[in-house]
Amino acid sequence: MKIIYHGHSCIQIEVSGKSLIIDPFLRGNPAAVTKPEDVKTDMVLLTHAHVDHILDAAPIALQNNVPVVANVELAGYMEGQGVQTIGMNIGGTVDFGFAKATMIHAFHSSGITLEDGQKAIYGGMPAGFIIQAEGRTVVHTGDTGLFGDLKMFGELYDIDLAILPIGGHYTMGPEHALIAAKWLGAKQVLPIHYNTFPPIVQDADAFVRALGEEGIRGTVLEYGEALEL
């Protein structure tokens, strides 16, 4: 299993010659090294409706002729952009053949700001995904604060990699992400959702050192870099 970090919260997982991409936000990220038109994938997964998670979902899905997987409200919005969708909800699992995705809850908000900037429409519940493939289990928590049910997920699943936001301000910061990693019992942690905007600037290397002090392996990836599980 190959995990590619495209920046912000955008992760691509490659298994068995197939791939899925989560929360594609490339055009809006000046540091991104991958363009939406260069992405080849078999599924597009969305954790919630904020623009920094859905901006490139429709273009990528359309050019690859693949569905967007999201909560039913967000899936309905994406359908309005001519995209195939698989609507699901918290606790549900979808089997893609090459991987399974279970939608878990997150503590955040989720709304789609309309073009006039004066109104936001409901984007369904924010979520994360537990991805299982090739005997590996990866959790992408989406945008979230720290919450106690992360302990439950750690009891339910043998988590090989936890992909956690550390930016603070909009999500949990490094201190809470460290607790989340311990609660999840993750063997390895990949920090995301930091340094994209001024309010979420963090020292990811310091976070990884703190993980190491707790006996947890952490990895900082630059945009476009990958790790193997």
TrEMBL record:
Metallo-beta-lactamase domain span: 7-193
Catalytic activity reads:
3',5'-cyclic CMP + H2O = CMP + H(+); 3',5'-cyclic UMP + H2O = UMP + H(+)
Instruction: Determine the domain of life of the protein's source.
Output: Bacteria
GO molecular-function annotation terms?
hydrolase activity
Q: Name the UniProt key words of this record, in alphabetical order.
A: Hydrolase
Pfam families from the UniProt entry? Lactamase_B_2 (PF12706)
Instruction: Tell me which SMART domains the record gives.
Output: Lactamase_B (SM00849)
HAMAP family the record matches: UPF0173
Stored PANTHER family: UPF0173 METAL-DEPENDENT HYDROLASE MJ1163 (PTHR43546:SF3), UPF0173 METAL-DEPENDENT HYDROLASE MJ1163-RELATED (PTHR43546)
What family classification does the UniProt entry report for this protein?
A: Belongs to the UPF0173 family.
Functional description taken from the UniProt entry: Counteracts the endogenous Pycsar antiviral defense system. Phosphodiesterase that enables metal-dependent hydrolysis of host cyclic nucleotide Pycsar defense signals such as cCMP and cUMP.
This protein is called: UPF0173 metal-dependent hydrolase AML91_11950
